[in-house]
C-alpha cells in the first residue's frame, strides 16, 4: 500500500494530477476550463439535437406519406368491396380469394420446406460456392506454407455461346467475395453479375472462395499471404496480360486494400464495392450500425462468443445482426413477397436463400482483428492497423488505380465509410498526384448494400461501364476523380451510357459528410473496448473456456435460431411429409385470383401496414441507439478518456508538399525531354483546364499514348512515370510548364505535329470550353504557331498506309495492341509528319529507365501495353 501512496504523491496518476492542478488554478483559469467544458456539452447537445431532429423529420415525412398511400389504398379496396356487393359478386370474389390464398399458403410452405432441404444439403456438402458457373480449383490455400481455408477458382466459360471466348492475353479479373458470415459466390450467382460482365468481355475470371471451417490457427495475415500467392499464380498463367484487376465486395474490399498495400507490385486496378474502411464515419441521424460497438460491447464480445464456439466465431451471429438492421424486410417482407408471387418467386427466393443461409465460421484471432483493428479501432484509416506484429498496413503504398463504388442507399457501408479514408490518408488531392496515384470513386443514389454487387441493374450499368473503362483508365493523369454515368442512348435492351471523369478535391468528399465531430466519441469506445478486452482475457476467459467443450460448441451452433428455423421447416420434420404431394396437387389445380379482386387489394394494404409498423419500430430503435450512444460516450469526461485514440495519421501541411523529393525532381527537369514529354504535358494542361474527361476523349488519349509511336515503345512503367512527372510539373509550375514547351519541341515540324495531336484528343473546337480553348491558344502562341481554328478528326500519329482494324481480333499478335476504331485516312501533312515522327522517337533517358525499373516485373514482356485491346 505504501508504494501506491508513494506513487500518488509522486504524481504518477494523471487524473489526480489534473485535479491537483485544478486546485491551483486562478479564478480566470477555472472559468476558462468550465467554459470549454460547457462548449463541449453545448456542441454535443447540438449534435444530438440535430440527429434527433433528422430522425423525427425522416420518420414524419416517410411514414406520413406511407400512411397516406395506405389510407388511399384502403379507400380503393373498400370501393371495390362496395361495387362487388352492389353487383352481387362479393361472395364469389371472397370465395375465389380464399381459394387462391389457401393455395398460396400451401405453395409458400412447400417453398420454405425446400429452403430447409437446400440448407441441409448445402451444409452437408460443406457449403460450396453458390456460383452458377463451373470452375476448376487452381490453388488451395490449405497447401500453402501458411495454410488457410481460401482457394483460387478458375471460372469456366459457359457453353451457351452468349459470352465471348476467353482470351488469355486480356487482363484477368480476380473477385474476392466477403467472408462476413456468409459463403462465397454472391458475385457470380446469376448471369448479370460481376463474373458475367467480365466473361462477356472476354476476360479470364478467377474467384477467391473459402471453405466453411477455417484452418487451425488461421489468421488474417495468412489469408492475405494466400491471396497474394493467388495473384502471382494468375499472373504466371497469363504472362502476356497486364496485372490482374482485383475486385473486393464488402468485407472483401478492405481485404483487397490489405493485399494491395502489402504487395503493391502485384495487382492492376483494384475495385472496392461497398467496402467499409473508415468505420467511424457516417452522418448523424442516418447511419445507426456504427454505434453497435458502443452499445452492444466492443472486442470482448467477439472474444466471448468465440470462446463459446471453442475458439471459433459463428458467422450466423453476424448474419443475425444484419437481419436485425432491417427486421421488416428480413422477418416479414421477403416472406410476404414469396407468398404474394408464389407462382414466379420461388426460384429467385431459393437461390438467394441458399447463399444467405450458408453460415461460415471464423477463428477467434480473425474476428478479434476485424473488430479491434477496423470496426472499433478504425486503425486502417489511421495507418495504425498491423497485419502482423511490427508490420503496419499503409494504404498510401498502393500504386495501382483504386476504384471505389458506394451508394447513399447503403445503410451498412455509407459513402462516408467507403471514402473518408482518402481524407484521412492524404494531405490533399495534390499529395495523391505527387504519389502518382489514381483514385476514382462513383456514388449511386439509392441502391442498397447487397444491390451493389448483386443487383442485375447495377451489373448491366455500373459494373459494365467500370469494366469497359478499365481499358483506358490508366491514361488518366494521377489525381482524385469522380466517375459519373450521365445519360444513355438507345432502347432498354441496348443502352449506350456516357461516362465522364471529373477532377475532385478533398472538399468534395467532405461535403458528403456532415462534419467529423460526431466521430470523436468513438475514440472513447475504442479505449474502453481495449480495457474491457484485457479484463475479460485475464479475469473471465479462463472461467468461460473451462465450461466449453467441442461438443457444447457444436451444439450451440446447431441450435442457433437461424439454423433451427431452416432445419425445423425441412423434410426432416415428419409433420411436413404431406407438403410435397399437397403442393403438387395444388399446382395441378391452381386457380390464381384476378388482380382486381378487392380482397387482394385489402391483403396488400394490410401487409404494407404490418411492414410499416415494423419499420417504425426500427426507426425508433435507431433513434434511441444514437441518443444513448452520444449520451454515454459524448460527455467531456469521455472525450478526455478517449483522447489517446483520437489522433489519426499525421498529414503533411499543404505548403510542405512542394518540398517532397518527387516534386523537386520533376521541377528540376521541367526543361528536359522531347516530343513525348511535351505532348503529355499539353494534354494534362488541357484536361486540367476542363476539369473533367469524357470516356471517348480518354480512349483517344489511351490509343495515342499506348499504340502510336513514339509512345508505343515505352514500357508501362516508363509511361506511368512520364505521366506522373509531367502531372507534377503542371500541378506545381503551370505557367513555366507552358513557357518551357519550346525547349522540348525544337523544330517547326515537331511543334505542328504536337499541336495536331493535342487538338485531336479533345475533339471538336466547338465543343471545347472557353478555358480549354484559351489554353490551347497559349500553346500555339508560345510555340510560334498560328491560332488553332480547324478540327483534327484523324490521328496524326497514324502513318498514311495504316488502317485501323474494323473487326475484333483474337490475339495480341494479330491486333498489335490496337483498339477497335473506324478507318483512319491519311494525314493532310504527310511528309512533315514522317520526318517529325522519326525525330520524336528518341530513346528513353537513363534517368527515366532507372526510375521505372523498381516496379518492372521481370517475367512479363516489356512490349505489352498497359491495357489489352478494346473489344
From TrEMBL:
Basic residues: bias regions: 836-863
Entries under InterPro entries matching the protein: AB_hydrolase_fold, DUF3141, PHA/PHB_synthase
Stretches the record annotates as Disordered: 787-871
Basic and acidic residues composition-biased segments: 796-822
Composition bias type Polar residues, residue spans: 826-835
Pfam family, one: DUF3141
Stretch forming the signal peptide: none
PANTHER family for this protein: POLY(3-HYDROXYALKANOATE) POLYMERASE SUBUNIT PHAC
Protein name: Poly(R)-hydroxyalkanoic acid synthase, class III, PhaC subunit
Organism this protein belongs to: Roseibium album
Amino acid at each position: 500500500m505504501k508504494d501506491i501512496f508513494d506513487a500518488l504523491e509522486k504524481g504518477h496518476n494523471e487524473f489526480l494530477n489534473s485535479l491537483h492542478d485544478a486546485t491551483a488554478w486562478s479564478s480566470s483559469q477555472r472559468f476558462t476550463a468550465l467554459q470549454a467544458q460547457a462548449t463541449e456539452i453545448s456542441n454535443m447537445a447540438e449534435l444530438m439535437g440535430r440527429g434527433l431532429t433528422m430522425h423525427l423529420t425522416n420518420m414524419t415525412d416517410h411514414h406520413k406519406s406511407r400512411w397516406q398511400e395506405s389510407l388511399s389504398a384502403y379507400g380503393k379496396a373498400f370501393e371495390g368491396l362496395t361495387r362487388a356487393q352492389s353487383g352481387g359478386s362479393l361472395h364469389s370474389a371472397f370465395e375465389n380469394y380464399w381459394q387462391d390464398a389457401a393455395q398460396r399458403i400451401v405453395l409458400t410452405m412447400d417453398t420454405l420446406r425446400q429452403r430447409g432441404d437446400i440448407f441441409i444439403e448445402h451444409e452437408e456438402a460443406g457449403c460450396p460456392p453458390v456460383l452458377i458457373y463451373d470452375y476448376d480449383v487452381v490453388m488451395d490455400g490449405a497447401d500453402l506454407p501458411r495454410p488457410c481455408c481460401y482457394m483460387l477458382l478458375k471460372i469456366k466459360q459457359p457453353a451457351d455461346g452468349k459470352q465471348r471466348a476467353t482470351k488469355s492475353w486480356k487482363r484477368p479479373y480476380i473477385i474476392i467475395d466477403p467472408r462476413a458470415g456468409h459463403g462465397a459466390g454472391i458475385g457470380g450467382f446469376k448471369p448479370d453479375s460481376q463474373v458475367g460482365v467480365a466473361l462477356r468481355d472476354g476476360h479470364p475470371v478467377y474467384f477467391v472462395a473459402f471453405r466453411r471451417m477455417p484452418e487451425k490457427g488461421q489468421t488474417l495475415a495468412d489469408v492475405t499471404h494466400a491471396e497474394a500467392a493467388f495473384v502471382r499464380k494468375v499472373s504466371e498463367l497469363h504472362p502476356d496480360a497486364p496485372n490482374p484487376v482485383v475486385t473486393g465486395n464488402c468485407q472483401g474490399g478492405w481485404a483487397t486494400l490489405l493485399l494491395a498495400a502489402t504487395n503493391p507490385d502485384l495487382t492492376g486496378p483494384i475495385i472496392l464495392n461497398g467496402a467499409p474502411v473508415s468505420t467511424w464515419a457516417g452522418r448523424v441521424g442516418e447511419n445507426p450500425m456504427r454505434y453497435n460497438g458502443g452499445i452492444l460491447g466492443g472486442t470482448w464480445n467477439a472474444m466471448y462468443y468465440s470462446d463459446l464456439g471453442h475458439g471459433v466465431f459463428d458467422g450466423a451471429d453476424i448474419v443475425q445482426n444484419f437481419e436485425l438492421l432491417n427486421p421488416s424486410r428480413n422477418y416479414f417482407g421477403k416472406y410476404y413477397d414469396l407468398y404474394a408471387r408464389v407462382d414466379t418467386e420461388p426460384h429467385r427466393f431459393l437461390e438467394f436463400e441458399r447463399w444467405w443461409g450458408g453460415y461460415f465460421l471464423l477463428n477467434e484471432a480473425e474476428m478479434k482483428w476485424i473488430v479491434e483493428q477496423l470496426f472499433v479501432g478504425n486503425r486502417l484509416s489511421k495507418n495504425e492497423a498491423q497485419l502482423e506484429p511490427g508490420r503496419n498496413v499503409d494504404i498510401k503504398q498502393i500504386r495501382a488505380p483504386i476504384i471505389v463504388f458506394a451508394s447513399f442507399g447503403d445503410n451498412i457501408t455509407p459513402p462516408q465509410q467507403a471514402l473518408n479514408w482518402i481524407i484521412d490518408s492524404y494531405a490533399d488531392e495534390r499529395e495523391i498526384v505527387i504519389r502518382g496515384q489514381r483514385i476514382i470513386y462513383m456514388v449511386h443514389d439509392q441502391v442498397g448494400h447487397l444491390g451493389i454487387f448483386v443487383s442485375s441493374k447495377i451489373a448491366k450499368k455500373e459494373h459494365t461501364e467500370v469494366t469497359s473503362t478499365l481499358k483506358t483508365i490508366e491514361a488518366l493523369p494521377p489525381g482524385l476523380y469522380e466517375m459519373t454515368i450521365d445519360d444513355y442512348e438507345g432502347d432498354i435492351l441496348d443502352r449506350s451510357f456516357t461516362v465522364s471523369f471529373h477532377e475532385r478535391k478533398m472538399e468534395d468528399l467532405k461535403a458528403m459528410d456532415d462534419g467529423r465531430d460526431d466521430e470523436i466519441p468513438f475514440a472513447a469506445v475504442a479505449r474502453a473496448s481495449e480495457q474491457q478486452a484485457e479484463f475479460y482475457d485475464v479475469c473471465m476467459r479462463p472461467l468461460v473456456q473451462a465450461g466449453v467443450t467441442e461438443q457444447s460448441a457444436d451444439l450451440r451452433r446447431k441450435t442457433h435460431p437461424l439454423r433451427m428455423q431452416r432445419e425445423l421447416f425441412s423434410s426432416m420434420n415428419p409433420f411436413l411429409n404431406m407438403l410435397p404431394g399437397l403442393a403438387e396437387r395444388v399446382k395441378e389445380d391452381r386457380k390464381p385470383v384476378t388482380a382486381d379482386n378487392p380482397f387482394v387489394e385489402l391483403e396488400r394494404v394490410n401487409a404494407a401496414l404490418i411492414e410499416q409498423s415494423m419499420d417504425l419500430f426500427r426507426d425508433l430503435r435507431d433513434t434511441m441507439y444514437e441518443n444513448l450512444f452520444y449520451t454515454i460516450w459524448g460527455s467531456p469526461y469521455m472525450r478526455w478518456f478517449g483522447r489517446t485514440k483520437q489522433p489519426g495519421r499525421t498529414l503533411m501541411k499543404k505548403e510542405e508538399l512542394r518540398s517532397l523529393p518527387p516534386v523537386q525532381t520533376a521541377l528540376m527537369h521541367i526543361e528536359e525531354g522531347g516530343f513525348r514529354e511535351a505532348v503529355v504535358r499539353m494534354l494534362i494542361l488541357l484536361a486540367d483546364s476542363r476539369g473533367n474527361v469524357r470516356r471517348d476523349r480518354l480512349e483517344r488519349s489511351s490509343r495515342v499514348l499506348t499504340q502510336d509511336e513514339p509512345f508505343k515503345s515505352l514500357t508501362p512503367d516508363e509511361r506511368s512515370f512520364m505521366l506522373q512527372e509531367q502531372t507534377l510539373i503542371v500541378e506545381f509550375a503551370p505557367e513555366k510548364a507552358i513557357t518551357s514547351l519550346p525547349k522540348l519541341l525544337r523544330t517547326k515540324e515537331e511543334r505542328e505535329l504536337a499541336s495536331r495531336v493535342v487538338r485531336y484528343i479533345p475533339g471538336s473546337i466547338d465543343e471545347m470550353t472557353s478555358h480549354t480553348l484559351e489554353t490551347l491558344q497559349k500553346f500555339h502562341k508560345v510555340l510560334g504557331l498560328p491560332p488553332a481554328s480547324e478540327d483534327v478528326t484523324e490521328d496524326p500519329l497514324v502513318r498514311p498506309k495504316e488502317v485501323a482494324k474494323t473487326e475484333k481480333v483474337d490475339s495480341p499478335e494479330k491486333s498489335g495492341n490496337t483498339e477497335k476504331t473506324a478507318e483512319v485516312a491519311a494525314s493532310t501533312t504527310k511528309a512533315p509528319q514522317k520526318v517529325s515522327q522519326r525525330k520524336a522517337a528518341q530513346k528513353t533517358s537513363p534517368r527515366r529507365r532507372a526510375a521505372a525499373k523498381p516496379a518492372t516485373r521481370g517475367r512479363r514482356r516489356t512490349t505489352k501495353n498497359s491495357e489489352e485491346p478494346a473489344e
